[in-house]
User: Fold Mitochondrial coenzyme A transporter SLC25A42 from Pedionomus torquatus.
Amino acid sequence: MGNGVRAGPVDSKGQDVEPVTSTPLPSEDNQEKKKVLNSLMSGALAGAVAKTAVAPLDRTKIMFQVSSKRFSAKEAYRLIYRTYLNEGFWSLWRGNSATMVRVIPYAAIQFCAHEEYKQLLGSYYGFQGKALTPFPRFIAGSLAGTTAAMLTYPLDMVRARMAVTPKEMYSNIVHVFIRISREEGLKTLYRGFTPTILGVIPYAGLSFFTYETLKKLHADHSGKSQPSPPERLLFGACAGLIGQSASYPLDVVRRRMQTAGVMGHTYSSILLTMQEIIREEGLIRGLYKGLSMNWVKGPIAVGISFTTFDLTQILLRKLQHSTNVER
Assistant:
């Protein structure tokens, strides 16, 4: 210009060149979208496979949790057998359709959120590309579980209602929503929400923490980058055992509050619900009712869930890689 000073960068010959900006490459955006989509798909499949596998045990556990009957392995077997005789084999999976409607988005959101929270916390704490240290590992799991629970809670409420009521009461999932809304009010769909969130923080935190920690210890001691499927199942089973044992009393409280409207009870708060359960049934027999069944069901479900997620992720990455190579 008039003063002879160039405003922008110049090349070796003194010619003006376009300034270089640090805009993200389209390929990087696509990679991130594919990663999120893979996590959602893998999580959805993991939740569906795991919950379907243990659905009869899950329904039986809920029925004991919401009743004042004393729990024992023999009584659990009798209940399953009576249900089979009176209502048929497929009645053992009653409420599983509601479980699928809930668990597919729940698991998809939880696993995907966990991957994203790990990445965010890794950047924040300076562990990008490396395994997180214990505390951020626990926080990533807790945040993932909390995010999923907040977004899918009414579906969990519906599932609990369908599990403990005769099939004549509710014909399908939509019918449950309509009847609860008309007869008990929309607020009822969030009854038991607080104990759910309080329970999911230690449950999801400890589950993901335990599984990720066992995988890291395995890699450190074996020299293998990835555990085998049976090892993944074992690590997931340990994660489920620890996570569910830590949060179980709040799970019982949640179920009591969710099903109060159809079981003839009124529970106004977490503490009052706990007090009533302890007063009527005792501490261990009340707040830990059905825990022994959960020690069978929980590790199986969590082990299948984590293993299915990891193996599906690996498979999807291989498929995408082979597609890119062919191109």
Notes: Residues 207 and 239 are 4 Å apart (CA to CA). The two ends are 48 Å apart (CA to CA). The first helix runs from residue 26 to 53.
